[in-house]
Task: inverse folding
């Protein structure tokens, strides 16, 4: 096993570069633990409205105004049609509520008292409608049975105070699994960089014509040398994978032992094999260290950027996403993102993951084959 | 003497070019065979063919009486090669490099440790075992290259220009090492550009040019092949007249007369007492000289005569 032993001695001399990539992974890890705090408590957001009161400042109007103050942000805009419409158009406000002259009287005398509301084109506009409907449903019912204005106001306000606690039941610790998923997304860079660098550097050394001649004239079979080199690569990559997994467990703790966590780990192993194949290809194509360093930067950093490792694919232009689909990193990251959303594990939720992993394996196989064919051609020449 | 390597009618062609043309020669046990030839003569192609690093078109190569092939691992286990270019791992120390290349042949760690130590002793790298190749001088690097090629104690060693670009101290150390290898029973095939090295260490010499053997034999046999007996140089104290020059040229056995600023060199084709005859002539002709000395032909003269080229061309 002299070649296998030598493999690690050579890599040991390059530990500086490898540790640099590990350091980058740790940095990303730190970053991922500091950011992406997905909250699970929700606060109702308030739409912006303009309220134009053409009626007197009666108790009924004041009560409606107080209700609107509590549930919306009332923006002070001059009562000017042009200015109000501009504010609506530029989405400074989500609706304009006009309280018409005589509204109080109509309300108290049980007449038709629909307010004129102008809605904008924002998502909050419908929310304004909901807020108004809630108020008027209660106000109309109360008005039918009660005569005193103070009583009406009191009953309306008491009824509006009734709220229902809504608890969203979730079996998945979304926050932690998201962190774990981000960790593996960031790991894309370091996994690729370490696998490509280490595999390629070893291949360059052993494919050096002078060293190769020495190995070829020795009594050790070429196939045995190749096997030991492959074994070295495999052991090293497994070691790197175990390190990544250990780091993910250290950071994300118990979540890594859930099905989601395990799937993230399996997904990373599949990707690791693919990264190894990329390393093989680079090592066969290039024959100097500078070219390897350049290849590592272009491939690891480039794919991390365009495949959604650093920036979510949702924010990337469609053309970039289309390009990234021909790269294994895209499918690896897609799977990480998918895994963090799965709550129920059945055929329908698992099959997309398996398809993505299969695509990564096809990439790995293609890269290996390209490396083997190119190498055979080179030897023949 | 026992034949170790037997090469018959070896031919290797690169498209139109015939790199080796029907080459046949034998290498005998425990000899140092010098393989000489100008650049592009076919030396390296011959060695690479023998080592099965190259496919050849026709002929046969037998080592230890067995057909050599890329899969002849039992033969390979007895061969050591020191290539012209230093072939070591930059990331490994001197001792790690030797251990690796020895490990390609020797699995037993204990034996290997012993062999590695012997190799280090042989090339005199004891003080540098923890050094990395980058930290070694050109000469020390060559010594490391040799140690890597011979650490497994091979019976046949191919040394391809092992002393190129090394300092005199390292060269002497390398040559001493080669002699020791032979003393330990190895058979050596040695190629070099340095004639003086061939004269010192080789038992037999084969001169190759344009893929063909143009001469082979020991030093004496080769020197007999050329029409030179000796060269006599006279360092003059005064200029020769034309009459004196003509008289010198007409002396017995003189085949060449070369005049420099303050000296002349005469080449003799034969004759046993040329020097005494010349001194007598100089004295009688009252030609004043400071020194006069005779040189026997060197292998370089032989090489030049046979190939028409300097070995370093």
Result:
């Amino acid at each position: 096993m002299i070649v296998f032993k030598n493999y690690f001695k050579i890599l040991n001399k390059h530990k500086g570069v490898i540790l640099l990539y590990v350091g980058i992974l740790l940095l990303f890890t730190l970053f991922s633990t500091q950011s992406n705090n997905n909250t699970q408590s929700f606060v109702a957001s308030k739409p912006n409205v303009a309220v134009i009161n053409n009626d007197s400042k009666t108790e009924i109007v004041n009560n409606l105004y107080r209700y609107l103050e509590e549930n919306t942000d009332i923006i002070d805009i001059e009562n000017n049609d042009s200015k109000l419409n501009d504010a609506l158009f530029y989405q400074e406000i989500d609706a304009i509520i006009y309280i018409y002259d005589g509204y109080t009287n109509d309300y108290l005398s049980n007449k038709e008292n629909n307010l004129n509301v102008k809605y904008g084109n924002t998502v909050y506009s419908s929310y304004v409608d909901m807020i108004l409907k809630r108020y008027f449903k209660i106000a109309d019912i109360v008005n039918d049975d009660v005569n005193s204005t103070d009583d009406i106001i009191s009953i309306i306000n008491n009824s509006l105070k009734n709220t229902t606690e809504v608890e969203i039941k979730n079996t998945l610790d979304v926050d932690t699994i998201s962190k774990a998923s981000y960790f593996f997304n960031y790991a894309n860079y370091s996994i690729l960089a370490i696998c490509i660098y280490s595999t390629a550097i070893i291949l360059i050394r052993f494919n050096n014509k002078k060293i190769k001649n020495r190995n070829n004239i020795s009594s050790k079979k070429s196939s045995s040398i190749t096997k030991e080199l492959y074994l070295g690569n495999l052991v090293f990559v497994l070691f790197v994978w175990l390190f990544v997994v250990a780091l993910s467990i250290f950071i994300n703790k118990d979540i890594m032992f859930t099905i989601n966590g395990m799937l993230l780990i399996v997904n990373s192993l599949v990707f690791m094999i693919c990264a190894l194949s990329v390393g093989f290809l680079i090592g066969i194509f290039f024959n100097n260290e500078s070219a390897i360093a350049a290849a590592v930067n272009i491939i690891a950093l480039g794919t991390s950027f365009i495949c959604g490792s650093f920036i979510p694919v949702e924010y990337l232009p469609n053309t970039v996403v289309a390009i990234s689909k021909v790269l294994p990193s895209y499918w690896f990251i897609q799977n990480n993102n998918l895994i963090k959303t799965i709550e129920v594990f059945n055929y329908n939720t698992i099959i997309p993951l398996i398809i993505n992993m299969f695509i990564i394996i096809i990439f790995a196989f293609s890269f290996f084959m390209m490396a083997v064919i190119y190498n055979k051609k080179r030897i023949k020449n | 003497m026992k034949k170790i390597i037997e090469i018959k009618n070896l031919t290797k062609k690169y498209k139109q070019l015939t790199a080796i043309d029907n080459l046949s020669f034998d290498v005998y046990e425990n000899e140092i065979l010098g393989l000489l030839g100008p650049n592009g003569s076919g030396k390296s192609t011959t060695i690479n063919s023998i080592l099965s690093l190259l496919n050849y078109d026709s002929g046969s190569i037998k080592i230890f009486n067995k057909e050599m092939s890329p899969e002849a691992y039992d033969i390979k286990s007895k061969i050591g090669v020191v290539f012209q270019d230093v072939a070591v791992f930059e990331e490994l120390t001197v001792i790690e490099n030797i251990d690796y290349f020895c490990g390609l042949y020797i699995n037993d760690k204990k034996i290997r440790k012993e062999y590695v130590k012997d190799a280090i002793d042989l090339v005199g790298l004891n003080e540098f075992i923890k050094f990395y190749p980058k930290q070694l001088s050109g000469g020390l690097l060559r010594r490391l290259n040799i140690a890597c090629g011979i650490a497994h104690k091979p019976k046949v060693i191919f040394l391809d220009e092992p002393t190129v670009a090394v300092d005199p101290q390292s060269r002497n150390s390398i040559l001493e090492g080669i002699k020791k290898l032979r003393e330990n029973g190895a058979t050596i095939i040695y190629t070099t550009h340095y004639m003086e090295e061939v004269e010192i260490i080789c038992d037999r010499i084969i001169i190759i040019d344009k893929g063909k053997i143009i001469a082979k034999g020991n030093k004496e046999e080769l020197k007999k092949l050329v029409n030179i007996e000796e060269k006599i140089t006279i360092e003059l104290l005064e200029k020769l007249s034309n009459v004196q020059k003509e008289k010198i040229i007409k002396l017995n056995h003189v085949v060449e007369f070369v005049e420099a600023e303050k000296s002349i060199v005469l080449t003799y084709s034969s004759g046993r007492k040329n020097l005494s005859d010349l001194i007598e002539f100089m004295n009688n002709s009252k030609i004043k000289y400071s020194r006069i000395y005779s040189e026997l032909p060197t292998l370089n003269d032989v090489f030049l005569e046979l190939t028409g080229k300097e070995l370093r061309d």
The CA atoms of residues 55 and 101 of chain A lie 4 Å apart. Chain A has two domains: 2-39+173-380, 48-161. The first strand of chain A starts at residue 48 and ends at 53.
